[in-house]
Amino acid sequence: MDLTNINVIRELFSRHGFSFSKALGQNFLINPAVCPKIAEMGGCKEGVCAIEIGTGVGVLTKELAKRCDKVIAIELDERLKPVLAETLAEFDNVEVIFADVMQTDLNEIVGKFGGKDVVVCANLPYYITSPVIMKILESRLRIKSLTVMVQREAGDRICAVPGTRESGAVSYAVRYYSEPRLLFKVNRGSFMPSPNVDSEVIKLEITDRNKLPNDVEKMLFRLIRSGFSQRRKQLLNPLSGELKMPKEELCGMFLAVGIKPTARAEELKLEDYIELAKRLMG
Ligand code: SAM
Predict the structure, then answer these.
(1) Which residue's CA is the closest to the ligand 1 atom numbered 2?
(2) Domain CATH for 146
(3) What is the residue with the minimal CA distance to atom 22 of ligand 1?
(4) Are 21 and 136 members of one domain?
(5) How many domains in the chain?
(6) Cα–ligand 1 centroid distance for 48 (angstroms)
(7) CA of 1 relative to ligand 1 center, distance in Å
(8) How many CB atoms lie within 10 A of CB 126?
(9) For every one of its 282 residues, what pLDDT tens digit does the chain have, with 9 covering 90 and above?
(10) Average pLDDT, rounded, for the chain
(11) Which residue lies with its CA nearest to atom 11 of ligand 1?
C-alpha cells in the first residue's frame, strides 16, 4: 500500500471514518523521497532499533521497520488504531503504543530493545517540538541519535551555534547534550494537509562530553532560561533577580570566569554558562 499516494490515503480515511486533527499537529508526509531519507540518515539498519513519535498512518514507521530490527512507535490518537492495523499488517517487528509521548517512560521503552543500538526518528507534531526534544535529551536515554522533522524556524534555532544572533535558550540546551546539524529542507507541499510553514530534518547526535553534577546542571539551565527570558537586557539584571543576589556580588563572579559584566544572554558561549554555574554551586 503506497502511503504517499493521496488517493490511497483518502480511500483509507473514508473507509475508517478518519479526519485530520489540527490540534494534534497531523500533517502527514506524502513526498515519497522523504521517509526513506529520514530512515537512512537517521541510522536505521540491521542491528539497530528505532523509537518513533507520532505514526500518523505509518508512512515513516514502514521505512523504519524495513531497515531496523524492531520499532516501537508512540501515537496519541487512538482513532488511528484500525488504520495502523491495516497499514502495518505486514510487519511483525513494530509495536505501537497509544499514549502521550510526554507521559511515557521512554527509558522503559529503550529497555525493551535488549541492549541493541537505538535511534529516535520522527516527524514531530509541531505544537510540542521543543518539549519532546528536551524530554528525550533530559531523560539521558541510551540512544545514539535523534533525527526529526521540525518547522524550519525551530530547526534553525535548535541548530544555531550558541553565542550567535540566531541562537536561543534551546540552542544552548541542545548543545549541552548533543551535536545538532541540519540534514535537509522539506517544503510545505510534501505534507497532507499542507502546513503554513516549511520544514527541515535535523539530526542530534548524542554526546556525553558535558556531564555535570546534578546541582550544577540544574543551575546551568536556570541561568540560561532566566537570561533568555529577557534576552535584550544585560544578563546581570535578570540573573541577579532570579538568584536573589546583589548585582555587585554577581558581577564579581562574572569577572572571575571571564564574562563581560555588560554581556547579554546571547553573547555567552555554552562554556561561559557552565563556568558560571560551577562557580555559583562551588
Ligand atoms: N509520522 C507521520 C507522518 O510523517 O506522516 C505523522 C506525523 S504528524 C506531523 C505527528 C503525529 O504525532 C500525528 O500522528 C499525531 O497524532 C501524533 N501526536 C500528536 N501529539 C502527540 C503526543 N503528545 N504523543 C504522541 N503522538 C502525538
Answers:
(1) 56
(2) 3.40.50.150
(3) 100
(4) yes
(5) 2
(6) 22
(7) 20
(8) 16
(9) 899 999 999 999 999 999 999 999 999 999 999 999 999 999 999 999 999 999 999 999 999 999 999 999 999 999 999 999 999 999 999 999 999 999 999 999 999 999 999 999 999 999 999 999 999 998 889 999 999 999 999 999 999 999 888 999 999 999 999 999 999 999 999 999 999 999 999 999 999 888 899 999 999 999 999 999 998 899 999 999 999 999 999 999 999 999 999 999 999 999 999 999 999 998
(10) 96
(11) 54
Q: What are phi and psi of 270, to 5 degrees?
A: -55, -40
CB 204 within 8 A of CB 137: yes
Amino acid at 8: V
Ligand 1 mean position to 188 CA, how many Å? 16
Cell numbers 548543545: residue: 175
Claim to verify: residue 27 and residue 154 sit in the same structural domain: yes
Question: How many angstroms separate the CA atoms of 212 and 226, rounded?
Answer: 19
Contact status, residue 119 vs residue 84, Cβ threshold 8 Å:
no
Q: Residue 193: helix, strand or coil by DSSP?
A: coil
Q: Confirm whether 1 is domain-assigned.
A: no
**Could you tell me the CA-to-CA distances from 240 to 58, 83, 225, 245, 279 in Å, in that order?**
49, 54, 13, 5, 15
Among 52, 55, 191, name the best residue to mutate to test ligand 1's pocket (greatest count of ligand atoms within 8 A of Cβ): 55
Instruction: Assess contact for 28 and 57: CB atoms under 8 A.
Output: yes
Helices (H), the chain: 6-16, 34-41, 59-67, 81-87, 106-111, 129-138, 152-159, 169-177, 214-229, 236-243, 247-256, 270-281
Cell numbers standing for residue 188: 510545505
